[in-house]
Amino acid sequence: MNNEVKIAYFSMEIGISNNIPTYSGGLGVLAGDTIKSGADLKIPMVAVTLLSKKGYFRQDIDSDGRQIEYPIVWDPSKFLIRLSRKIAVQIEGRDVYIQAWRYNVQSVTGGKVDVIYLDTDVEENTKEDREITAFLYGGDDRYRLKQEIVLGIGGVRMLHALGFHIKKYHMNEGHASLLTLELLLMYKRDIESVWDERWIWDIDAVRELCVFTTHTPIDAGHDRFSYDLVKKVMGEVIPLEQLKKLGGENHLNMTRLGLNLSNYVNGVAKKHGEVSKALFPGYEINAITNGVHSFTWTCEGMKQLYDKYIPGWANEPELFVRSEIIPDGELWEAHLQAKKDLIQYVNKSAGIDIKVDVLTFGFARRFTSYKRADLIFSDLDRLLTLCEKGEFQILYAGKAHPKDTPGKDIIKRIIDLSKKVNDKIKIVFLKDYNIEMALKLVSGVDVWLNTPLRPREASGTSGMKAAHNGVINFSVLDGWWIEGHIEGITGWSIGPKPTESSLTNINDAADADDLYYKLENIIIPMYYHDRNQWIKIMKNSIGKIAYYFNSHRMMRRYVTEAYLR
Ligand SMILES: *Cc1c(COP(=O)(O)O)cnc(C)c1O
């Protein structure tokens, strides 16, 4: 298998199974979906990531609504196969040894993709070095840089040690950009022996090999390291002068490094492509809008329904174009079953008693300020008056990064407010969000709510998952939703049209106003009084959104536009 020439997909986090907790949110789950579609479509790929032996973290919430983090204890040997090869990278002047674990994704189509998990927890290493691959996004800059050396430089070395032949290196975000330095070194060796001294570094040859996907629409979100730190931790892999030309004069900016050494660069939605161009003028930045893995993100009841009416949908999601042929009654029944399963799960895990026949909203994703999970509480009195139009309830879930105090405060605020409004609106915060819970939520609620601050949602993917289950999107026009939204046909928007790319334009009040207006005048009345229209929008969510926003379409585009260039 390893003799086949492959595309190497590098990602700091990969969320491929609920049993393998090496992801924190959308970036990792997207990587997992990418790999699964790669396997289904028999794309010759191999993926590389870190083992994250103590995971991201397990979330608990105390009685005051404060998040508490615990390391996740998981046993890689239960799900992965440990390989015997070891390689080393230089960190702080020491050799740090890396071993690898393998997970083989096997599709029913016969396609297979290996995922290689890099692990420094080997006896040759010092106690400290054994922890380098322990915590996803843990520690300080120094820790992060060490992780990125293991991922980028170690990853390339490991692939070669395992006998892989690679024709493209796809960096999923800047965390993997150091792989370009290892490639530069490889080309330097070749060239010095056969060529003259003009080209010490064959930048063009490396660019031919590399594809870079950026996921962050704001400058501060891109990893950067001081050259002082780089020198201490990584040493001069290539001369500092050279590195500064490629990665930025003042800091080593991992995005810039990736951009300078890639032949193809893309953002993850059309709008994000534009925003990225403004952020990095002078680069050609394309856009391939994200998608989700249809089979993974469709609940059991809907799968059966699709098998009956749209056979072949899982490996050819274009067939969702025929969603219209599903009988209304059966679609509603399948939705109701998913909703019952969810409500039963919520009641059991939160020790409450919410009802199936109440209009239910879902909001679940990473808790960080720009996602504005509490936008719906901007005007509490107005929110409470909406109940007169019809009852509704809201389910929340999501983790805040351990160092993200504002993100944690939003969790607490929502929990505090839920106690306050409890007799009129049932609000439940489910702790320890993960892939399994995500599927329950995106399939079991009626409406999927998303209220990010424009233009900071690079893409977003959870709304695409909802659409795969006939759950209707109600979201701010940012990221993928700008492309998927047709007002009143595929769902509803919140706030003004997505014209600005400025980051200072904060429009909480206008967004909240529109949110309340549509709840009161459109969504609540339609849910309770116009079921036919509601089901029409459910079908359009399947036929127009799931049809397009799936990772099969996304991967076909990566192959034709990025990998075959
Ligand atoms: C899909 C998913 C996300 C991403 O959600 P967004 O709303 O796109 O930010 C985060 N976490 C988990 C567990 C997911 O499944």
Q: What's the arrangement of secondary structure elements?
A:
Elements: E1 5-11, H1 26-40, E2 45-50, E3 58-61, E4 67-70, H2 76-79, E5 81-91, E6 94-106, E7 112-119, H3 127-130, H4 141-161, E8 165-172, H5 179-194, H6 203-209, E9 210-213, E10 224-226, H7 227-233, H8 240-247, E11 251-253, H9 254-260, E12 264-267, H10 270-279, E13 286-287, H11 300-309, H12 328-350, E14 359-364, H13 380-386, E15 392-397, H14 405-421, E16 426-430, H15 435-444, E17 447-450, H16 462-468, E18 472-476, H17 481-484, E19 491-494, H18 508-529, H19 531-546, H20 551-563
Parallel strand pairs: 1-2, 1-8, 2-7, 8-9, 9-12, 12-13, 14-15, 14-17, 15-16, 17-18, 18-19
Antiparallel strand pairs: 3-4, 5-6, 6-7, 10-11
Helix pairs in contact: 1-20, 4-5, 11-12, 12-15, 15-16, 16-19
Pyridoxal-5'-phosphate binds at residues 25-26, 29, 365, 433-435, 438, 460-462, 465.
What would you note in describing this structure?
The chain has 20 helices and 19 strands. The two termini are 24 Å apart. A nine-stranded mixed sheet has the order 5-6-7-2-1-8-9-12-13. Helix 11 (300-309) runs antiparallel to helix 12 and helix 15 (435-444) crosses helix 16 (462-468). 40% of the residues lie in helices and 19% in strands. By secondary structure, it is of the alpha/beta class. It has helices at 26-40, 76-79, 127-130, 141-161, 179-194, 203-209, 227-233, 240-247, 254-260, 270-279, 300-309, 328-350, 380-386, 405-421, 435-444, 462-468, 481-484, 508-529, 531-546, 551-563, and strands spanning 5-11, 45-50, 58-61, 67-70, 81-91, 94-106, 112-119, 165-172, 210-213, 224-226, 251-253, 264-267, 286-287, 359-364, 392-397, 426-430, 447-450, 472-476, 491-494. The radius of gyration is 24 Å and the shape is globular. The protein folds into two domains: 5-262, Rossmann fold (3-Layer(aba) Sandwich); 300-549, Rossmann fold (3-Layer(aba) Sandwich), CATH 3.40.50. The protein binds pyridoxal-5'-phosphate. Pyridoxal-5'-phosphate binds at residues 25-26, 29, 365, 433-435, 438, 460-462, 465.
